[in-house]
Model the fold of this input.
Amino acid sequence: MKRKQLITFAACMVFSVGVLFSLYALSPFAAEIPRFSFERNFDSRIYLTNQAVVDLKVNSFYFAGTGNKTIYLGNWTGPFHLIQARVPGLDTTSMDVSVKDLKIPDDYRVFRMSVDSPYFFLSHGTLPGIFKGSLNRLEAKPFVSNGSPFFVDAEPISPTRIALKSLMKGLKVNELAVFEVDSPYFEFKPNVLEQQVDGIFCVDGTLQYDRELNRLVYLYAYRNEYIIMDTSLNVINRFHTIDPFAKANIKVANVKSQNYTTLASPPMKTNVQTWVSGNHLFVQSPLMAKNQEKVDFLQSTTIDVYDITKGKYLYTFYLKKYKDNYASMFAFLATAFWPSTIIIWSNTI
Done:
């Protein structure tokens, strides 16, 4: 090989290595990710496969509920539509999907849907308003006749009862409340949510109802605790997730000129999304344990599983990316062949 060719070849090699090094330096794999002091149990028996895939075309769907081997999806930009998807069994790879058109009051165009088969509920916390309808008739009517307080979250418990997370008047803190159709008022349960900083952001979290156990589950977003309650919001147990953050790591600022409180800096979440099914609590964690592989952590969504009857951490598994997209929402449907039926929705744009 001639000297000129060798120089050209060497220059190309140096350039290629430089490009690869630059790409790696800019990639998330080179970024420093903190490892925390806890360990995870990765059960080798948990093996996930794609059994059926349905392209929803748009990314505005969210899980509204489950029931009788069926998953229900609402749509933020198409609030008149309810997607009903029948989950395939072990002997089939097809998913039966149908679209139902809802009839709702003209004044309410934006809401969150929750399905507790055979009923669906529509809620909007800042209007505020709560409506209920039958999946057979698909027509929503007011669930609360004497006016609803402003609320952050609403979770149906039964055809006549709903649990809320709402701003308690006078105290300016978020508390849980329960409303019964035959009752003339909302019954607040103070001190179920324990304040650490401001009583609003520090108690942020997810409220879900476990229909199999007839229990409400509240998981804090910024600390390692979840609460098990009966349907009257009486606390049965307070359990902990495996991360070490017992106190919410947030900073708040008071804007006196406009009389409101806001976050002073981006908070560190310890728990992101949740789902309850049977006696299991599924938690998406954004924290990397000391025994996790960095590549696996970056290329997947980490799901921790807890037994809510015992308050025991069981194991962790990964939801792998689909078409280079992370799972943006997830739901688990208990069936006779649990845990092989897992429904995952990914933002595939």
Notes: Residues 194-349 form one domain. Residues 14-30, 336-341 have pLDDT under 50 and may be disordered. The chain has two helices and 26 strands.
